[in-house]
Amino acid sequence: MKIKSISLENFKSFKHAHIDLSGLQSPILITGENRDEVGASSNGAGKTAGIMDSITWALFGTTPTLEAIEDVIRTDEDCCQADITFDTQLGNIRIVRERFMNGRKSLIVEINGTAIKENTDTAVQERFLKLIGYPLMNKNRFDDFLNTVYLST
Asked: I want to staple 40 with a disulfide (CB 3.0 to 4.6 A). Which of 26, 34, 57, 111 is the partner?
């Protein structure tokens, strides 16, 4: 899978963000600039929240630190959204995950513009992971993803 774009609304520290990676070649170095404090390092500039946390949240509905709903949604907002587009062997895949402060959530997965239809978000997620060849028999698949993709990058 190659990430083409990441769009965020009220996700963690981001009000609105769009990251277009479609024209870039691998590997990609992501740097940050802390604009809150003059002379500060890039710590806290949003590199992890904007890229890695949004990807894991879109794919699995959780982040590496297993944050509560109120920690994923930007302060003083009612909902958040991550919209991520990938190029895969199946074609173009778009994942849109939303979470609301009242507990409501939604997941939309489209492959080449056609949505995966299932009765629950969990069923949509399971079908998507199966389609991309992710091993579903392993109950620790989120941990495996973190250890092989997230932490090894």
From this structure: 34
